[in-house]
Amino acid sequence: MSAADPGFGVYVHWPFCAAKCPYCDFNSHVRHRAIDQPRYARALASDIAAMAALAPGRVVTSIFLGGGTPSLMEPATVGAILEAVAAHWAVDGNAEITLEANPSSVEAERFRGYRAAGVNRLSLGVQSLDDKALQRLGRLHNAAQAIAALETAQSVFNRVSCDLIYARPEQTVSEWRGELARALKIAGEHISLYQLTIEPETPFADLHERGQIKIPLGEEARAFYQATQELTETAGLPAYEISNHARPGAESRHNLLYWRYGDYAGIGPGAHARLPLAGTEERAVYVGERQPETWLNKVETAGQGFSEYERLDGEAQADEMLLMGLRLREGIDPARYERLGGRPLDPARIAGLVGQGLLQRADDGRLMASEDGFIVLDALIADLAV
């Protein structure tokens, strides 16, 4: 896959978690009764069939089972989902098939079952190597369990990633440097490092509003980001996206597809899809019903689970491509922006941002955020898109 040909992906959302983390605004839900997994697997297969009818004849280059906590699924459920994908689309022989997992010991025992079902890449939600921080983040594992799960994953899968959250309340840059250095020694080929943000309507947002937690801002946040880039570069896992780091060739192909503005199907509660509309220059956005039980009933009665639909004209697509593509170190092709939107980016505005040291031009014409540009990326994109 390449920037010019991002491929075609399938995202499958498993919305259930054992507990809701206080910083999380994802579409995840806690249920205190056992989930009827065979029933949900059948519904996901129906949703796959409906989405395949909207995007026939595509070759799937990546599948991502996200959540929620997909590692709460039985391997048989995962296998049924992957079989349904293969029943409706051709799946490339080298397709990347990722499953997100939490590092509890019970879930780690399932890793070999996921591998047998067809998963070939695992993304492990470590989040921290500090037990006190894990408790504050609402995680159900400790650091020792996370390390053991990572070792198990690496013994089963050739490709493994792990996630960490930094710039946490009361964390210092020095503490983060030590924690990240330890993580990089065991991380393997890929690591995702997310600076904590306070998301609306989460318990952390309420605590933040009342002044009970604070996160680094301004120059302090910049120091965390710069330390992250320094340590990952030195370890041979440079950033290829603002929050994602990998050894060359080990980048997440599925996530690259998003950032390169490729087409993808979205399956399950709250899942998003972006697919071209046949016979037009427009693209359609489909969003699944968020509430799992409502989604389940909708699929079982209507045969599909999406409840929102939006058409994107060329200008909207160009803006989305800019928003996603500038997150990547490789940047964007301005000619593609012009093809999509019917107008070029403003040369004077580009020159001004280059002059400010926020934007760079590659020899092949691509535009990329500089190191300083990545730190103010949202503002940079807003300025360029005007």
UniProtKB/TrEMBL annotation:
Which GO BP terms, alphabetically? Answer: porphyrin-containing compound biosynthetic process
Q: Which residues form the Radical SAM core domain?
A: 2-238
Subcellular location(s) of the protein:
Cytoplasm
Its domain of life reads Bacteria
Required cofactor(s): [4Fe-4S] cluster
InterPro entries tied to this protein: Aldolase_TIM, Coproporphyrinogen-III_oxidase, Elp3/MiaA/NifB-like_rSAM, HemN_C, HemW-like, rSAM, rSAM_sf
The record describes the protein's role as: Probably acts as a heme chaperone, transferring heme to an unknown acceptor. Binds one molecule of heme per monomer, possibly covalently. Binds 1 [4Fe-4S] cluster. The cluster is coordinated with 3 cysteines and an exchangeable S-adenosyl-L-methionine.
GO molecular function terms noted in the UniProt entry: 4 iron, 4 sulfur cluster binding; coproporphyrinogen oxidase activity; metal ion binding
Stated family: Belongs to the anaerobic coproporphyrinogen-III oxidase family. HemW subfamily.
Q: What UniProt keywords apply to this chain's record, in alphabetical order?
A: 4Fe-4S, Chaperone, Cytoplasm, Heme, Iron, Iron-sulfur, Metal-binding, S-adenosyl-L-methionine
Species this protein is from: Candidatus Raskinella chloraquaticus
Q: Mind telling me which SMART domains this protein's record contains? A: Elp3
Q: Which GO terms describe its cellular component?
A: cytoplasm
Q: What is this protein called?
A: Heme chaperone HemW
